[in-house]
Every structure is written in C-alpha cells, then in structure tokens.
C-alpha cells in the first residue's frame, strides 16, 4: 500500500471506490500481536500473544471480560481496544438492567459495528485502530465474531488476527471442520497450537500468552497462568514423545557431562 | 378535594443485623404488606450484592428493587474496569439528563482489579452515595448492609433514607425496629460510640448465640407489630461463605 492523493481524509473516496484511511486502520490491526478464537457448539476459546514492551514493563492486556457471557480479544491499538471494551461492558450492563437478561452476542456486535462505522463517515474522527474477536454464549449457542475497524463484522468458526496470523489461520483451516464436537480441553489445546504457529519458532510459555474461555455452565474467565503452563507442557510432551525413540543417543558434550550418558533418551 | 398522588408506599417488615468477630448475621421477615392487607408472605428483603456483602432493606419495595439493581450494576462496572463515576450513572436509565451533566463535572476514577469483589466498607460508601444522589426524591428504603470487611471481621452499616450511615455492631430497621432495638441494646451491650477510646463495634457472642438472639427478637417483634411475621429469613456470612435459614413466625 502506497501513499496517494486520496488517503488524507477518511471522508475521501478513491476513484477505485476505496476508503484508504479505513484500510490503513486495518493495517494497524495487522501490526498488533496475534489473537485467535475458536468455537465449538458449546464453548468458545480466545487466546492472545502478550508481548511486553520491555523486560521492565508488564504485559499488555489483550483479553477483556465484557460480561459473564461475553469476552473479547483485541489486536491493534490497545488504547482503542480498552475504550471499546468499556463501551461493550456498558451496553451489556444497561441491557441487563432493563431486561434482566444477558445481551445476545449478535446484538452486541452490531452495536459495536455501528459505532465503528460512525468513525468512517465523519471528517473529524478517525477509524478505531483495533480488531476485536468477540466470543460469547447466548440462547442461540456459542458465537465467535470478528469486528473490523471498517464497521464490518463476520461470524466465524475460528479466526486469527494480528501479526503472523496467517500461519494460525492456515492451521485452523485444516482442522476447523471438527471443532463443533470438541470438548473445551481440546479447544484450548488447539488454540494454543494456533498461537504457537504465530510465534514461528519462539518458545511458547504461559507468560507470553493469555487464554480465556466461555461456554455452557462456564462464565467467561481468563485461565490462570499455572493451568495454561501445564497445558502447554502437556502438548509439548506429547509432541516430543513419538520423536524420542527415533533419535540415536547423541554424545552431547561427552567431554563435559558424564551425567548425560546416564540420562538415556529412552526415559520416556 | 382529592388526595394527591403519593409516589411512596410502605410495604412494612423488619430487618436486623448483628456483626460478630468473624461472622455477620442479617435477617428480615418475609411479609410484604400494604395498608392493612398482606400482599405476600414470601418476599425476600435480603439481596446479595457481592461475595461477602448483603443488603437488607425495609420500606417501599419498588424503590428497594430499583436500588438493588442500581447497586448491582454499579458494582459490576467497578468490578470490570477502571471507570469514572459518571459512566456508572449512565447505567441507570431513570436518571434525568441534567443530573448526568452535574456528575460529569466531577469524575472520580477508582480502580477495581478485574475479578476482585468490592469490600463491604467500599460497598457501604457506594450505597451512601447512591442514596444521596436522590436526595430530593429519595428511595423510600431503610437499609442495613452486612458482611465481612477486608480483614474478615463482621461489619454492619446502618442507613437512613438519604445515605447517612455508620458502622455499628448491630442494627434494626423497619416497622418492628422500635421493638427490636431495645432488646438488642440490652443483650449485646455494645459500648456507646461516644465513649473513648473507640471500642471495636462487634459483639463477643458466638455465631449460634447471635442467630438464636435474632430468632428470639423476631418472635417478639411479631407479637406486637402487625407488619412483621410469616417467616424470617436469616443469612449468615462467614469465612466459609453464605448460608440461609428460614424460621416460621406467627401468621396473624
């Protein structure tokens, strides 16, 4: 995407019928760290990669609880995401107050999409620079939506947004057809796998990712770090186990470590 | 000369609460009346606002219902994010526009960690503010807030209709309160708040003794107060959680 004379204002169309500012806003989403969502018939899982700005700082919050039955994961401008989460929370609370019932997810995303659309049609505003994966459960079942800065929204079985999300999407595309029947544990495992794909070689630990789940009989909550770490280790143990017998006993540093010889790779 | 529309009604009933060293007992009868009639014998005047915080109110139940919903919504807002109070007020559709503008003028940002419940003293302040907000068209609600504070000690806060509140060792509100309070004064020997040094406002009684006292006190109030009776709902809050007991009372 290159600079051109039609991209200064969000209220300027290009001759090809594009609004460049909106498209640039979607670029901002692609720059954010990855977030994935998957759903089965009864549960929805959100997982996000939390990068800390530096070793000294805390991790960015990417997953927000909106209500007992809805949560979001964001990618892009975190500040915009925080503000929109607050808006979503307010909408849910107002609805619960008046109707004494949880706000159906489909209606929530429409309100969010309408709010985003407003910013694409005012010369004094800019589009929100954040994409939201909205995961929720209502009377019609489990839902996963993606809300774009453009004001569009789509429902998905599984989706990934943010940087290197294509790797996760490819992984999910191969497996999504069986998601409907998955249990919540399998869903979480697949979410972690998908996140792993976006890391491309970097080690997956619970300190750099956040996992949250909502489902039948389970209000939206973020799974605690300890539990996530155990799941990650379980996945990795399963990955390595079939590989072990194939490997010959490598004389790894036999000069230094006699202990290594004792710990034979046959110890599975 | 017709009478003007009266926006209030008194649905009667009595509420009592006693704070202990590590427990809190909150009780209320379940009779709802209007005039000299009974509307129902099975109405709960006790509402759980947070993990260890319970509100019991006597007075006009419609206002009380609205007050409880208001508090629950504000608690949720405080729970979920860092928020300013003006947004809390947007959650209540009944507030007039100009009042919202007034509050926009003094935002106070207070932070509650996600998933952390509000402590009882914090809820007490919130209730006081909520009540005073309607200073010129008050909630006809006489409230007692009971629960455990952040140290796990029992606490009871007693209110008037417009939000004046005080932390006490025990309290009673409602139509039977004048019959109950002298008995509690006699039994609980709580030191006067005027005495110095300020003493802890909780009773040395054990949990079972406090519950027995509450049962006795309701039985007595039922005898003489026509608006109190049917059944008493007793809620006991302690470190292991919240449990309820129901005791039958005279139905006349």
Automatic annotation (TrEMBL), chain A:
Instruction: Name the protein family.
Output: Belongs to the peptidase T1A family.
Segments of this protein annotated with the region Disordered: 236-268
Keyword check for Nucleus:
yes
Xref: SMART domains:
Proteasome_A_N
- Give a Pfam family name: Proteasome
Domain Proteasome alpha-type subunits residue range list: 6-28
Specify the superkingdom: Eukaryota
Annotated Gene Ontology cellular component terms = cytoplasm; nucleus; proteasome core complex, alpha-subunit complex
Give the quaternary structure: The 20S proteasome core is composed of 28 subunits that are arranged in four stacked rings, resulting in a barrel-shaped structure. The two end rings are each formed by seven alpha subunits, and the two central rings are each formed by seven beta subunits. The 26S proteasome consists of a 20S proteasome core and two 19S regulatory subunits. The 20S proteasome core is composed of 28 subunits that are arranged in four stacked rings, resulting in a barrel-shaped structure. The two end rings are each formed by seven alpha subunits, and the two central rings are each formed by seven beta subunits. The catalytic chamber with the active sites is on the inside of the barrel.
Chief localization: cytoplasm
Q: Keyword annotations for this protein?
A: Cytoplasm, Nucleus, Proteasome
- Bias type Low complexity, positions: 243-252
The entry's function note states: The proteasome is a multicatalytic proteinase complex which is characterized by its ability to cleave peptides with Arg, Phe, Tyr, Leu, and Glu adjacent to the leaving group at neutral or slightly basic pH. The proteasome has an ATP-dependent proteolytic activity.
GO biological process, alphabetically ordered: ubiquitin-dependent protein catabolic process
- Do you know which PANTHER family this protein is assigned to? PROTEASOME SUBUNIT ALPHA/BETA
Indicate yes or no for the key word Nucleus.
yes
- Protein name (record): Proteasome subunit alpha type
**Where in the cell does this protein reside?**
Cytoplasm; Nucleus
Q: Which organism is it from?
A: Colocasia esculenta (Wild taro)
TrEMBL record, chain B:
Protein's cellular compartments: Cytoplasm; Nucleus
Domain of life of the organism encoding this protein? Eukaryota
Among InterPro entries, the record links this protein to:
Ntn_hydrolases_N, Proteasome_bsu_CS, Proteasome_sua/b, Proteasome_suB-type
GO biological process terms held by the UniProt record: proteolysis involved in protein catabolic process
Q: What Pfam families does the annotation carry? A: Proteasome (PF00227)
Keywords for this protein: Cytoplasm, Nucleus, Proteasome
Q: Does the keyword Amino-acid biosynthesis apply?
A: no
Cellular-component GO terms for this entry = cytoplasm; nucleus; proteasome core complex
State how it assembles. The 26S proteasome consists of a 20S proteasome core and two 19S regulatory subunits. The 20S proteasome core is composed of 28 subunits that are arranged in four stacked rings, resulting in a barrel-shaped structure. The two end rings are each formed by seven alpha subunits, and the two central rings are each formed by seven beta subunits. The catalytic chamber with the active sites is on the inside of the barrel.
Q: PANTHER family this protein is in?
A: METALLOPROTEASE TLDD (PTHR32194), PROTEASOME SUBUNIT BETA TYPE-1 (PTHR32194:SF2)
Q: What is the purpose of this protein?
A: Component of the proteasome, a multicatalytic proteinase complex which is characterized by its ability to cleave peptides with Arg, Phe, Tyr, Leu, and Glu adjacent to the leaving group at neutral or slightly basic pH. The proteasome has an ATP-dependent proteolytic activity.
Q: Would you identify the family this protein belongs to, as annotated?
A: Belongs to the peptidase T1B family.
What is the name of the protein in this document? Proteasome subunit beta
Source species: Colocasia esculenta
């Amino acid at each position: 995407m290159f600079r051109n004379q039609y991209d200064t204002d969000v209220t300027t169309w290009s001759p090809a019928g594009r609004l460049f500012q909106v498209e640039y806003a979607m670029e901002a989403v692609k720059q954010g760290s990855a977030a994935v969502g998957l759903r089965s018939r009864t549960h929805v899982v959100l997982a996000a990669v939390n990068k800390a700005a530096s070793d000294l700082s805390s991790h960015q919050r990417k997953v927000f609880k909106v209500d007992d039955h809805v949560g979001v994961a964001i990618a892009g401008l975190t500040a915009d995401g925080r503000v929109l989460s607050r808006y979503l929370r307010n909408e849910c609370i107002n609805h619960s107050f008046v109707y004494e019932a949880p706000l159906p997810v489909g209606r929530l995303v429409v309100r969010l999409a309408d709010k985003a659309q407003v910013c694409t049609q005012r010369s004094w505003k800019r589009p929100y620079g954040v994409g939201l994966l909205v995961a929720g459960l209502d009377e019609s079942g489990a839902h996963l939506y993606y809300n774009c800065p453009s004001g569009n929204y789509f429902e998905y079985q599984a989706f990934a947004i943010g940087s290197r999300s294509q790797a996760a999407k490819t992984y999910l595309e191969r497996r999504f057809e069986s998601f409907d029947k998955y249990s919540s544990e399998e869903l979480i495992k697949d979410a972690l796998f998908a996140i792993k794909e976006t890391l491309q070689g970097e080690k997956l630990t619970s300190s750099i990712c956040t996992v949250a789940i909502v489902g039948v009989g389970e209000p939206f909550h973020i799974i605690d770090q300890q539990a996530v770490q155990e799941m990650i280790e379980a996945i990795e143990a399963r990955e390595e186990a079939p590989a072990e017998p194939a490997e010959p006993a490598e004389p790894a540093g036999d000069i230094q470590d006699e202990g290594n010889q004792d710990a034979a790779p046959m110890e599975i | 000369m017709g009478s003007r529309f009266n926006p209030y009604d008194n649905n009667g009933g009595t509420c009592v609460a006693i704070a202990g060293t590590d427990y809190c007992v909150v009780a209320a009868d379940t009779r709802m009346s209007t005039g000299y009639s009974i509307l129902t014998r099975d109405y709960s005047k006790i509402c759980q606002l947070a993990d260890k915080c319970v509100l019991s109110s006597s007075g006009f139940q419609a206002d009380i219902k609205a007050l409880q919903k208001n508090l629950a919504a504000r608690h949720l807002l405080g729970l979920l994010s860092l928020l300013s109070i003006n947004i809390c007020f947007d959650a209540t559709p009944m507030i007039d526009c100009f009042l919202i503008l007034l509050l926009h003028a003094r935002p106070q940002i207070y932070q509650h960690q996600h998933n952390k419940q509000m402590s009882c003293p914090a809820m007490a302040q919130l209730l006081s503010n909520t009540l005073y907000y309607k200073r010129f068209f008050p909630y006809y609600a006489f409230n007692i807030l009971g629960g455990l504070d952040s140290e796990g000690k029992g606490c009871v806060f007693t209110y008037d209709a417009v939000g004046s509140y005080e932390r006490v060792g025990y309290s009673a509100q409602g139509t039977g309160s004048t019959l109950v309070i002298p008995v509690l004064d006699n039994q609980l020997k709580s030191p006067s708040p005027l005495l110095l040094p300020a003493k802890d406002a909780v009773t040395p009684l054990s949990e079972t003794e406090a519950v027995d006292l509450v049962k006795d006190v309701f039985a007595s109030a039922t005898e003489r107060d026509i608006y109190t009776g049917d059944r008493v709902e007793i809620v006991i809050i302690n470190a292991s959680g919240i449990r309820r007991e129901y005791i039958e009372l005279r139905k006349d």
